[in-house]
Design brief:
The complex is a heterodimer. Chain A is of the alpha+beta class. Chain A has a domain of 160 residues: Rod shape-determining protein MreC, domain 1 (Thrombin, subunit H, Beta Barrel), CATH 2.40.10.340. Chain A has a 6-stranded antiparallel β-barrel with strand order 1-2-5-4-3-12. Chain A is extended. Chain B has one domain: Orthogonal Bundle (Arp2/3 complex 21 kDa subunit ARPC3). Helices cover 64% and strands 0% of the residues of chain B. In chain B, helix 4 runs antiparallel to helix 5, helix 5 packs antiparallel against helix 6 and helix 6 crosses helix 7. Chains A and B meet through helix 1, helix 2 and strand 1 of A and helix 1, helix 4 and helix 5 of B.
Amino acid sequence: MEYSPPPFFNRGPAPVVRLLLCVILSSSLLISDAKYQYLDNLRKVVAAIIYPLQRLASTPFAVLDRIGEFFVTQSAQRDENTRLRSLSLQNAAMLQKFNALQAENAHLRELLSIRQRYTESAIAAEILYTGRDPFTRKVIINKGEQHGVKAGQPVIDQIGIVGQVTRVYPWLAEVTLITDQGQAVPVLNVRNGLRAVLGGTGTDGQLELKFIPLNADFQNNDQLVTSGIDGVYPPGLPVAAVSAVERNAAYLFARITCKPLAGVANHGQLLVLSLENTAPPRPVEEEKPAPGRKRKGGK
Amino acid sequence: MMQARDVTPHEILLPVRPAFIVFTLGTALMINLLPWSGWLLAIKPDFVALTVLYWCIQQPHKAGFGTAWLTGLLMDIADGSLMGQHALAYSVLAYAGIVLNRRVLRFTMKDQILHVIPLLLMNNLIVLAIRKFAGADFPGWTYFAGSLVAGALWPTLSYVLKLPQKPKTDPDHA
């Protein structure tokens, strides 16, 4: 005779089975996200659902900021005013020079019939919060797909390059800072025009020049600007300054540490540049068999 | 010789409403989403993990794997981290909570904290292992500080989350 437990004892599968199910489900999500990026649409939908929560969470602090603005002393206000006035005077002088130079540049380019490489427009954005994931260096800004932000656009502040837009949500965007481990910026040494690739290290305020031969001419305090070769970052924007050069003959490459110039870790206002790359597409190399040599099989 | 240890007597509580569980998880998620920065961010406890663990220990039949997994997924997307890392970690946390629930609730608050902290550290370790696997660097020892702070918050959390379940009148003197 068989007995089965009464229905109110029935609690479904055992905890271990349920745990296994969850683990399998999460692992498949992990793999499809990390390896194949299948889930971007799902991410967007859920992000839109969470968005009100995020806004709600950051509202009290925004209100506090507003209230703080009311209680600025008159003397602080006056000091700032004088400082800004002198700054604007300096800027005006530079701007005049810049206008003349830009006109001259356009003229020369015309003469050389080089096409203007980029048309630029910028979207001003504000940082909502810094990313809470301790493994990456990211910030979330308050402009998204609806404002014309696209993934891949460079982000700058008033000093230089801050990072690159890596993920776009309907009303928010995620900016990966140049200090993030996987982030690379093609740069140029201002002093001698040497090209290099600047990579993040994953720690705040530290960058590293990658694959620089031991004898390359890099010194402390060399200024690095974007080279513009990749077509992602516009050329000539300040990125970093070399802070330490370590040449050890035991290694293939020199170890060159740099400090970012822009306030990569602390800033409120940012500019998202939208570049329309009008450079001609990269020419496709024709594959021609080398003369006198047999092609290897299997390729 | 057996020695009687301090044990918390089982409190008589009103049944919890599922809406309240959802509400507390939502609130925890929002606290996690506050614009934390600087050293506060470094020691910020994961309020969602703590709340998930609380409900799995307190109400294993009302909040379990489904709740933990879905909350983890929301956390992944809000954080912009790898999809599924928090979901996986919270599921394991839920498992630990469900398996240990009868045991943990019998202890005094101080001993409950000693149970909660290792579980939260394990939660951290799982996330760390996943990120290591995906190619990230070790973010430093402060990464674990949040769990210790979370452990210190456990008594407050248990007290606050239990408030709506307290009977209105004292059953002994009704």
